[in-house]
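@channel sequence for tomorrow's demo:
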Amino acid sequence: MNDQMIDALVDELKPELLPDIIVNISDLIGYKATLKLVEAFGGIKFAMPSGQRESKYFEALINAVGNDAALTLTKNYGGELIYIPCCHAAFIQLRNTEFRQAVTLAVAGGEVQTAVIHRLASQYGFTERWAYKVLAAEAAIYQLDLFN
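structure tokens (generated this afternoon):
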């Protein structure tokens, strides 16, 4: 997933799907770096380094989010043991949104929707039946908007 895709997907992310700590971190270092942090350390308690720039934790943090974001995190959370949530619900939403966009783009490019779903479902970890449910869920949301 490239940075442009991440930006587009994050714009559609529902904030209520994110735990408070992730919202706070994203306010400090941005969504892209926070997404990288969650991908690297989601589901574990992370000992945020404090002042020890040569520690293995600091190196791991830099590898995950980059130097500037790592410095910001250590400045704000240095010395704390922080649980980094997996953000499973948010990642499912992002995956589903990315899938819907990929299908829409392919169909707009002239491909047949059935063939696109057949091709993309396994790439996104779906069965074809689930792919149709993901697409139907978005259609239901747009129908509700018509009546509001």
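heads up for whoever presents: The radius of gyration is 19 Å.
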